[in-house]
């Protein structure tokens, strides 16, 4: 765990915020934690935060480990608890316990049905739509595609797969040659796609969930032309996309690792007694062809594109959610830095 | 003539046998002490309840692992099996308790059958349980593709039971360990099982069936796995087939920390309880200590190595 | 009926006072029994009858089929052809261990069949559970085994709570024998080489107990390679050769030589200690290994010197520190031990630390020498094959080089393990009582092998529990309780002398 | 039954992969040759890791290397970083191998120095390696070498170059096991450690060499995988379970003492083709797991006791030693990017 005392003044009346993260083993989660630590340190020096602490559950996304860690965090009596859950259900009782202890709980990145917690997440429907629609359009509304599903069995994936199927149903000329389990992981998708490539006819596109880089490798291994892909939003994939000059309807879209920062602002506002809806939907990160260069040059290979939420932007987005207005469009890197 | 020389051996041999569990016990108390020094609330009833409750299903799953290790086998499927039980608990056991119970009994029977097949086909348990773990996972995903469901009220009530003046998690740990101890260390069933792990030829020569011994060990392990799953579901309030996947390795470590071995022939229920609690406390200590997030795995590894190294030192001293 | 209710000790009245073996009823009989394992014909048509109240001695060379026959007679294994009858009733062919017919036939195994991780009492439960109460069986089993051990081996020093693993080899054997005899009705007790790891004292009290058993009408079948022992205990002696019983005679009137002839060899003066021990006095040889006042780990101030080309014996009762001395010479890590040159080891416990079970005889035999023959870590197979051939021929290993190691009988396995050590280029060969359970002819061959190798300049340190073997040594250290109590050389070495030294000490000053 | 006539369990891996291949062919009725060719371009990575795991498992009961997964991930980063820093692919690959050796050295110290059971020792070494991986991955900037990637993708006449190279490596391991003193010593240690020790085999040295070899091979696999896919903290995750499974289905005796390097190819191809089949048919993960588990059990129970020695009941056998190994989680969880 990492914690930080704010300038020796003790916690005083400034809040102590803890973050429990269920899994740290991939670039997205690492970016998420890095963004949080940077923002929290800044907030600390701005006097908004007394102390913060980050705990990552070791191992492979183990809910039981995370339950144990949250329980030991409860002992330390944080004012607010941010959770990126390892399981959408297993944490329910311990979250209830935290709420009962008077702790503000903000769950982000995944829905969880704990009535006392505030939930902040990206719309998975938006994600799936942003992934499939431009791609289908890019291949001209007809052709053969492979669908690479995410972590089958997870709630978000169900929702995304449903959306994908709706879009495909609306485009009857797009044929699905195979549905593979890419697990939203480039390496797994690479192997899965390679496994079916020899058995399917010419492929025009692969609708995936942020695994396009691996899928592209699979096609180049098989010696086939690279079709339209759904890239991940990290530096490696964006640079590949940029360098290979693909302009065939490929997109890069993923959820926003900056959610942790938004969750931090939410917790601070909640502790301030502000009224915030229980459920907040924040925009996904969609990298379009026009911003590709800017993003690609700003990101390290394993770093994921994140919206730079500030307290200001966060409050604007909350307003947008409350009023049902258009979501805030945070600045893209070239404009921001 | 020579009895005087050797009369001194038994107590020392006994001591040497108990040493591993003793070192783990010391480690456990040391960790509680560290936690308490960082956070004095740890030593209150609420504090102990908080830090111990997560170890309950782990300890019981580790008892299941120990049953198999006592016949010289290893269970690589226990994590997914416990996950499958939570799934069935959160679905079938709620919708129709009778069918749910039948399913759970069926799972125990499946474990026994697996044991029988392993024995009759003479295949290594390692790879058979590895194959079975895929099956448990598949079944779990089949029954409940997305984590969810809810636990029966009686189970949820038990999960949130908080008696005053006594940390509730201690009760299932102590009761389960005592039962396993009676069964595996004291009773004649335990003798059959351990004899099989120790020297199957002797068992057979005495006209006892090695197959029965193995099936019993697997059946008991299955029953303990079901119990662990029920308790996990009572804590998580739902079913998730992958919620306990980390148990597979940790239970093996718990048995080793508790003084068990891969050789078979040994049953160490109390040691396993201590080993399980010790491992469960590692994550508590990690969250209390300010270890950089990247380094947490390394610290966990180092703690395990340190406890086992302590065992070696004690063993050397005792020899 | 429970073991506790067993009539025990000399007070028990024999059911029939008649000690005439001829008049007694047959307990178990075998007629034309055959048994094959793969290509090995272990039994080729055995006829044998064991009668109530007699001690039947069974002798034969290694691999003659004694242990196999016993497994058939005890109902552990079915025979391929032939008939086994127990108390006049024919036994069905598909017999399994624990069958009701064989309840009263019990066997103490050559390789003990105890569970090392279990306590003595728990081991007793396994084999005698039928005569133990369902509840509190642990206490009953402890009491029963304690009493039986007290009767059989006074001063045994076994506590029923002990785990078998923690017992010495001799104590394990005692428990094994007691285990076999703990049953409510005992018609036949089979003892397969019971005294190989027992000291002479324990052996004597065992045979005393055997007498009280036969007096009560129990038959005892005794297998041993110690022919003199068999002749002194048995009423009748059966001799097996190549899977068949070739002779069956009253023990009275048989001499050791008669038996040896029956076992199928030209009696080659087995008492001859081979080539005479080298004439060079010990002091003049260059010392290649030395223990200087070694203490700790079961040794007290032990000094041992081994000269080049010398055969040094470690004698005394079993478990008095001989193995510890060998261990130190094998792994000279302490300052008080110096060993110049390479070493090879012949373990006594071949099941555990001798046999490599997946390999053939050739592979087992050459594994030590392989390192010496190899060039840059790459094996030279032609040289290895030649070495294997010569050793298989030299020791007449039955089965040949290509047989699987576990297909061999115990004695032949032991030959391979001895050959393994001598096939290497080791300067010092350590023998840890390796000739237990090896037949006399094989032993004689191996003794002369040792003398020849010593004559070629190799040194040998040889621990043996059989004092007669020490006659083949140049010098003998007698150990007791971890101390060297005597150093004998040349003419001084004799069985009588060694026994005298080991026992003279043991009767005084027990500490 | 004699030792000579023991069943040949390694056959089953090849039989199963042929069956799966035939099914794929029947379903898609095209690209049969290319299916094999593509499977052959994925199999070598698993075979490399499997060879190391096989050596470790052969060292006898209780021996297993559960650190292969974190070693692969760590070696991937180190190799890419070293290649980027020096511009030399060879240095990068050697750095990957060196990483594997370094992590294995920790395991060896724990196993031999502290007598910690291998499963726990390698688990701990793996935990340490994964911490290093995370630290390295934080802000990692280097990109894998393009030339190496093209080499790994090279398939003249449909035969992947890497597959040929790994076939040669397999042949070398076969020779190592049968022709060298190290190989024979390893097999002896695996059959009976006390017996090997009394036969004068330097057991500790053999074990150390074995774990180091496994670490080096995992490191090599990591270096190649990082170039083939991309360095990532969970690059190796799948390889732990699969490496154990391919070794055992490949016919290597889980209780040690007998190694079947060639068998690894059969079972590696089986696993890869099975993945392809499942993805082709579009089965759900539930069905995929059921099928994989069911097939592993089926092949295992069908092949049966060929993997153990003569089981004649009453002759005292060598104590059947337990098999050991470990696992990692089989799913990575629920968050879509988990
Ligand atoms: N507690 C138990 N644990 C495991 N297996 C058992 C148990 N009880 C009975 N069995 C099975 O039943 C068989 C009979 O075992 P049991 O111990 O009852 O034999 P027994 O009662 O001593 O013999 P019998 O009653 O036939 O004379 C055993 O071989 C075993 O397969
Ligand atoms: N389970 C078995 N499998 C294969 N061969 C066997 C088996 N048991 C015995 N044999 C073979 O049968 C023959 C007789 O063996 P057995 O053990 O009965 O001999 P033995 O007379 O007891 O010899 P020893 O005095 O060396 O103990 C030997 O050639 C042995 O190799
Ligand atoms: Mg015999
Ligand atoms: Mg014998």
Structure description:
Chain C: InterPro entries: AAA+_ATPase, ABC_carbohydrate_import_ATPase, ABC_transporter-like_ATP-bd, ABC_transporter-like_CS, P-loop_NTPase. Chain C: It comes from Micromonospora orduensis. Chain C: This is Sugar ABC transporter ATP-binding protein. Chain C: Residues 28-267, 282-506 form the ABC transporter domain. Chain C: Pfam families: ABC_tran (PF00005). The complex is a heterotetramer of chains A (337), B (319), C (511) and D (338). Chain A is of the alpha/beta class and 337 residues long. Chain A has helices at 27-45, 63-75, 92-100, 124-138, 155-170, 186-197, 212-222, 235-244, 259-271, 292-298, 311-323, 333-336, and strands at residues 2-5, 16-21, 51-56, 80-84, 104-108, 118-122, 143-149, 174-181, 205-207, 230-231, 251-254, 279-282, 285-287. In chain A, β10, α8 (235-244) and β11 form a beta-alpha-beta unit. Chain B has a single domain (44-318), classed as ABC transporter involved in vitamin B12 uptake, BtuC (Orthogonal Bundle), CATH 1.10.3470. Chain B contains 16 helices and no strands. With 511 residues, chain C is an alpha/beta fold. Chain C folds into three domains: 26-104 and 186-265, 3-Layer(aba) Sandwich (Rossmann fold), CATH 3.40.50.300; 112-184, no CATH class; 282-508, Rossmann fold, CATH 3.40.50. Chain C contains 15 helices and 19 strands. Chain D has a single domain, classed as ABC transporter involved in vitamin B12 uptake, BtuC (Orthogonal Bundle). Chain D is built from 13 helices and no strands. Classes of the chains: A alpha/beta (337), B mainly alpha (319), C alpha/beta (511), D mainly alpha (338). At the B-D interface, α8, α12, α14 and α16 of B face α5, α11 and α13 of D. Bound molecules: adenosine-5'-triphosphate (2 copies) and magnesium ion (2 copies). Residues 37, 40, 42, 60, 62-68, 110, 407-411, 437 of chain C line the site of one adenosine-5'-triphosphate (ATP).
Structural topology:
The complex is a heterotetramer of chains A (about 325), B (about 325), C (about 500) and D (about 350).
Chain A: E1 2-5, E2 16-21, H1 27-45, E3 51-56, H2 63-75, E4 80-84, H3 92-100, E5 104-108, E6 118-122, H4 124-138, E7 143-149, H5 155-170, E8 174-181, H6 186-197, E9 205-207, H7 212-222, E10 230-231, H8 235-244, E11 251-254, H9 259-271, E12 279-282, E13 285-287, H10 292-298, H11 311-323, H12 333-336
Parallel strand pairs in A: 2-3, 2-4, 4-5, 5-6, 6-12, 7-8, 7-9, 10-11
Antiparallel strand pairs in A: 1-3, 11-13
Helix pairs in contact in A: 1-9, 4-5, 6-7, 8-10
Chain C: E1 26-37, E2 40-51, E3 55-60, H1 66-73, E4 81-86, E5 89-90, E6 105-108, H2 120-128, H3 137-152, H4 169-181, E7 188-192, H5 200-215, E8 219-223, H6 227-233, E9 236-241, E10 244-250, H7 256-262, E11 287-296, E12 299-307, E13 311-315, H8 322-330, E14 337-339, E15 343-346, H9 350-353, H10 361-366, H11 369-373, H12 381-394, H13 410-423, E16 428-432, H14 440-455, E17 459-463, E18 475-480, E19 483-489, H15 495-507
Chain D: H1 11-28, H2 32-58, H3 68-86, H4 89-113, H5 118-137, H6 146-153, H7 161-179, H8 181-191, H9 193-198, H10 203-228, H11 239-249, H12 261-281, H13 285-303
One adenosine-5'-triphosphate (ATP) binds near residues 189, 192, 209 and 216 of chain B.
